[in-house]
Amino acid sequence: MLVKEVIDIIEEFAPPAYAEDFDNVGLLVGDKNSKLTGALITLDTLESVVNEAIEKNCNLIVSFHPIIFSGLKKLTGKDYVEKTVIKAIKNDIAIYAIHTALDNQYKGVNDMISEKIGLKNRHILIPRKNSIKKLTTFVPNKQAAEVRKALFDAGGGSIGNYDNCSFNIKGEGSFKPNEEANPVIGTRGEVHLEEETQIGLTYPAHLEQNLLKALFSNHPYEEVAYEISTIENENQHLGMGMIGELENPEDERSFLERIKHEFNCGCIRHSQFREKEIKKVAVLGGSGSFAINQAKAAGADIYLTADLKYHDFYKADKNIILADIGHYESEQFTKDLLHSYLTKKISNFALILADTNTNPIKYI
Asked: Are 351 and 39 spatial neighbours (Cβ–Cβ below 8 Å)?
């Protein structure tokens, strides 16, 4: 098995196209065509993690956070980033980072947090925009079913818990092949009328090339008529954060005590209690101050996230409890999620959870 094959499986789950613009995801170090000896799955890639990969004969590190975030102009070993990259290169170890591509995945980071808390009826807190496209094409009636199936097989026509979704209109198409045409139907120089089906379906933006390949491979015409548009609908299965409900309301203090225990938090910083039971909970792993207003607008009783600054807590304004449970703590189960997913897809190679604790923050 090649490193590339593992990457393909990861990117099927969390497409890099859905990572945030500021991020640096994908293969950061190494040759994707190297033969795989094993994969070490970690939250962060540090020099100590590379050492663990060497010890366990893993030549691929699958990391949530990218060790290279901004540009590297030199590799002299002057800081922890450069030391880590140099050690990985010297030992032929590839490093792949998934980060916000997994943050935006419906079954990703925030779904894992929600599962640990026990949230029901959950959905995306900030649905992704401009990630749904629509394909419209025109096919002779006899070939419409074949083309439609090919588009479904390529990933088109899936809406939430439903697939094979399309809208079809029968009508009459006209065309006149010129002298250089090689028509499948019709005659050069003559107007031809054909009973056709207009097929319309939506698809995730990152699958566009797959859809077009399926269309061109299965459509009978020499020239394929089609239209593509980006629709304004928010993608309810892609985006940042998650919100859901507890099965039974909990006391504010008791709820945070439970979170502190289950997430092994050194401490939890929070805004003023509202003397109201917790029922609706919003979560966002990692730095989540940007989503405070969305959590309030969604009617959350409490918002669990990390890296809140002093003035962020004022934004609670007695309308919500803001709770900072720690960056590492909020994302710590991500490597378990990746390990579980990859293990189901790959059974014949070593997929190892890293033992190294990469949390840089200590508590006294």
From this structure: yes
Q: How far is CA 174 from CA 115, 147, 180, 182, 186, in A?
A: 55, 19, 18, 16, 10
Handedness of CA 14, 330, 312, 65 (dihedral sign): negative
Is the torsion defined by CA of 40, 44, 47, 49 positive or negative? negative
- Write the DSSP string, 177-240: --TT---SSS-TTS-EEEEEEEEEEEEEGGGHHHHHHHHHHH--SSS--EEEEE----EEEEEE
Q: Residues 339, 343, 349, 354: what is their CA dihedral angle, to the nearest 10 degrees?
A: 20
- Give the domain ranges of the chain: 3-102+333-353, 109-128+238-325, 132-233
Per-residue pLDDT reduced to its tens digit, 244-283? 999 999 999 999 999 999 999 999 999 999 999 999 999 9
CB 32 within 8 A of CB 7: yes
Candidates 105, 114, 111, 116; CA nearest to 14 is 105
Adjacent-strand bridge partners of 138:
198
Residues in CB range of 329: below 8 A, 6 or more apart: 263, 264, 265, 266, 306, 359
Topology of the domain comprising 109-128+238-325: 3.40.1390
In the structure encoding, which two tokens stand for residue 330, read together? 């909020």
> Same CATH topology for 109-128+238-325 and 132-233?
no
| Structure tokens that stand for 10 in this block | 């990861």
The residue type of 172 is E
Q: Encode pLDDT of 40-49 as tens digits.
A: 999 999 999 9
User: How far apart are alpha carbons 195 and 284 in whole angstroms?
Assistant: 51
331 is in an annotated binding site: yes
CATH number of 3-102+333-353: 3.40.1390.30
**Residue 284: CA atoms inside 13 Å, Cβ hemisphere, count?**
25
Number of H helices, E strands in the chain: 11, 15
Residue 103 annotated as part of some ligand binding site: yes
Cβ atoms 94, 33 nearer than 8 A: no
Q: What is the pTM of this model?
A: 0.89
- Distance CA(303)–CA(289), nearest Å, equals 10
Q: Are 83 and 47 in contact (CB under 8 A)?
A: yes
Q: Is 3.30.70.120 the CATH classification of the domain at 132-233?
A: yes
